[in-house]
Write a structure and sequence with these properties.
Blueprint: H1 3-37, H2 40-48, H3 50-70, H4 75-108, H5 119-140, H6 143-173, H7 178-210
Length: about 220
C-alpha cells in the first residue's frame, strides 16, 4: 500500500469515528428525551439500536487492524490507530450507558417524578458536548480542545453532586420516595460515567498527538 492510499484509509477511519460518535450522541439525546417525557417507546428504540453501535465498533476495529497490517506504521501512525481502538471501546460503553438509562426510563415511565428533572438534562447536554468535542479533537488533531474536554468533567461531577444532595434531602423528608430516588441517582451516575469515558477519549487524543498519556 502506498502512503497516499494509507492516508486515504486514515481519512475513512476518521469518518467512521464521526459516524459512531453521531450514533452515540443520538443515543444519549434520545435516552434523555425519553427520561424527561417519560416516553417508553423512545427508550425502547434506544435499546434496540445498541446493536448498531456494537456493529460500528467492530467495523472500525477491523479498519484499524487492516491499517496496522497493510503498511509498517511510523510511531505517529501507530499512536493514531491505537488511539482509535481505545476511543471506540469508550464510545461503545457510552452506548451501553445510554441503554442502561433507557431501561430505567421504561421502569419510571408509569410513575410521577418525585422532583422536577432540572440537573439531569444539564448533565446530558454537557456529556453530549464532551463526546462530540473529544472526537472532533481527534479528527482535527486539536490538543487544546481535548484538554478542554478534560476540564469540563468538573462541571459534570458538580452536577452529579447537586443531584445526589437533592435526592438525599428528599428521602430524608419522605422515605417513601427512596426507591425512585435511587433510580434517578443511578441515572445521574450513568451520565457521570459518560463524562468519564469522554475524558478517557480526550486523554487518548492527547497521547496520539504528544506520545504521552496524561492523567489529569
Amino acid at each position: 500500500m502506498t502512503r497516499r492510499m494509507f492516508e486515504e484509509q486514515l481519512k475513512e477511519l476518521h469518518n467512521s469515528l464521526i459516524d459512531m460518535g453521531a450514533q452515540v450522541e443520538r443515543a444519549i439525546n434520545d435516552a434523555t428525551e425519553a427520561l424527561v417525557d417519560q416516553d417508553a417507546v423512545l427508550a425502547r428504540a434506544v435499546i434496540d439500536r445498541e446493536d448498531e453501535i456494537d456493529d460500528k465498533e467492530k467495523e472500525i476495529e477491523s479498519m484499524c487492524l487492516k491499517l496496522m497490517l497493510s503498511q509498517q506504521p511510523v510511531a505517529r501512525d501507530f499512536r493514531l490507530i491505537s488511539t482509535a481502538l481505545k476511543m471506540i471501546t469508550d464510545m461503545e460503553r457510552i452506548g451501553d450507558q445510554a441503554s442502561d438509562i433507557s431501561e430505567l426510563c421504561i421502569l419510571l415511565s408509569g410513575q410521577s417524578y418525585i422532583k422536577k428533572l432540572d440537573h439531569i438534562p444539564l448533565m446530558a447536554r454537557e456529556t453530549v458536548s464532551m463526546v462530540t468535542d473529544s472526537i472532533d479533537a481527534f479528527v482535527k488533531n486539536d490538543i487544546e480542545l481535548a484538554r478542554e474536554v478534560v476540564r469540563r468533567d468538573d462541571v459534570v461531577d458538580n452536577l452529579f453532586d447537586e443531584i445526589k444532595d437533592d435526592l438525599i434531602k428528599l428521602v430524608h423528608e419522605d422515605t417513601a420516595k427512596g426507591e425512585q430516588a435511587f433510580d434517578l441517582l443511578q441515572i445521574a451516575k450513568y451520565y457521570e460515567r459518560i463524562g468519564d469515558h469522554s475524558v478517557n477519549i480526550a486523554e487518548w487524543v492527547i497521547f496520539s498527538i504528544t506520545g504521552v498519556h496524561e492523567h489529569f
